[in-house]
Specification:
alpha+beta, 5-stranded antiparallel sheet, 3 helices
Length: 168
């Protein structure tokens, strides 16, 4: 009977790694696929609709998103980049396991077109809308060293961070 690896802990704000842009992925390897599997397990355990590798302390441009009702539809992305974003916006409540106990309403484009390397290592291009679009943009922010609260006014951001400090 083999021992299961201990899951990596999710970084907590204000860990400085959450502010650093992640490095591009040169190629999708077996190690990349294993990390995606670990990320999906962590995302499901939260439960959440997305996770970026830097949230686990891995500074690579890797993300997973699953905003499906049924679950089990996770999209694995390496080096995701937004090619196009709709002028139409939508507001959704966002949160992060890096900052437990707080959330905020964030306005983002309602639809985005994203290019990324998929699990086969092939360039893929997809359109996302609704919660999928929000989660993809949220994960790309993490890959850039940004947090959801960076998209809020200074007053709202300060309020969120004070609330997080009290909760922590």
């Amino acid at each position: 009977m083999s021992a299961r690896p201990v899951p990596r802990p999710i970084l907590r704000w204000p860990d400085p790694r959450l502010r650093r842009p992640a490095a591009p992925v040169e190629a999708v390897t077996d190690a990349t696929r294993a990390l995606w599997d670990e990320m999906i397990a962590a995302m499901e355990a939260m439960p959440g609709v997305g996770l970026a590798a830097p949230q686990l302390g891995v500074m690579e441009r890797l993300a997973v998103v699953d905003a499906s009702e049924a679950r089990g539809q996770a999209i694995r992305m390496a080096n995701p980049e937004i090619l196009d974003a709709s002028r139409e916006t939508a507001e959704r409540t966002e949160a992060s396991p890096c900052l437990p106990g707080v959330s905020a309403v964030v306005r983002r484009p309602a639809r985005v077109t994203v290019r990324f390397l998929n699990a086969a290592g092939v360039i893929d291009r997809r359109e996302f809308e609704g919660l999928w679009a929000v989660s993809v943009q949220h994960q790309i922010d993490h890959l850039e060293g940004r947090m959801f609260f960076d998209r809020l006014s200074r007053v709202k951001r300060d309020m969120i961070l004070r609330r997080a400090k009290k909760a922590g």
